[in-house]
Amino acid sequence: MDALVGLLDGVRAHGAFVLRMVLDPPWSMRLQDEAPLTVICVTDGGAVLCPDGGEAIALHPGDVALTRGTAHYVLADDIGTPAQIVIHPGQRCTTLTGEDLAFAMTLGVRTWGNSATGATRAVVGAYEGHSAVSARLLGALPNIAVLRAADWASPLPQALATEAVRDGPGQEAFLDRLLDLLLLDFLRTWFSRPGNAPPWWTAGTDELVGPAIRLMYNEPAHPWTVANLAAAVGSSRASFARRFTALVGDSPIAFLTAWRLALAADLLSSSDLTVGAVARQVGYGTPFALSTAFKRAHGLSPAAFRARRT
């Protein structure tokens, strides 16, 4: 497992959806759906993305925007067009006064808008799962990241737009995988640009630190120490510890602890495993040991953390 796989496992926990939008001006919608990650691909025409408290961003055909977290924004044909539609959590669509628009603006299979031949066409994919595992990667992204068509020669945005309106056996699963590929390609391209990647991302390519990180990702229950991690990657303990800390910004054990507790948080939220079973899966010998570390990190016991989901 690596950071990108962990991200997808986390944000996909509560599903994803793909929708094609077809719109004629004037149009403007306020998005406050709280989705951890949303991908917006403009295929025809243009749009303006206006984040709350930020500068407007023009989107042209082939451009892709990635929005993260709970930041709210307006997507419109023009910066001066007032919002007419509100997108709420769960992708519930209403007027500003709360009238439901789910059926009024449905144009066909996964297609939504105000005109069947709209000048602006875009495909939107949203991940709705909140996850502790994905928090490290999400935290490394800006609220809005944009890749321009001229700078990113990817066929995936148009492929997603084409497939979004098709129907048939396995189409939902096919779209899910295509959306995942688009997100993975976007993130790899974004983090390859100077200054965009966090230290732990670039450390993943190091010949010693990278394999050690992957060992921790893949085998969190193993009784890792600095000494046996160093031995596993063919380094001395002291040299490995210095190199890991310099590249990642955390010590090996601090990084491992954060990963284990993130996994524990997701298991507590998404499964009915006992605290003891969760502890064993993430490398703690007893429920008490997990509870002590978990409360130190989250301010809540595992039982209290789990109780919040109900």
Protein model, in words:
The chain has 310 residues and is α+β, with helices and mostly antiparallel strands. β10 and β11 (111-113) form a beta hairpin. The longest helix has 21 residues, at 171-191. The chain is globular and about 65 Å long. The protein folds into 2 domains: 3-191, Sandwich (Jelly Rolls), CATH 2.60.120.10; 202-307, Homeodomain-like (Arc Repressor Mutant, subunit A), CATH 1.10.10.60. Helix content is 39%, strand content 20%.
Topology diagram in text:
Blueprint: H1 3-11, E1 16-23, E2 28-31, E3 37-44, E4 47-51, E5 57-59, E6 64-68, E7 73-76, E8 85-88, E9 92-95, E10 106-108, E11 111-113, E12 120-127, H2 135-138, E13 144-147, H3 156-164, H4 171-191, H5 199-203, H6 209-218, H7 226-232, H8 237-248, H9 252-270, H10 275-281, H11 287-298, H12 302-307
Parallel strand pairs: 1-11, 2-8
Antiparallel strand pairs: 1-12, 2-7, 3-6, 3-12, 4-5, 4-7, 6-13, 8-9, 10-11
Helix pairs in contact: 3-4, 7-8, 9-11, 10-11
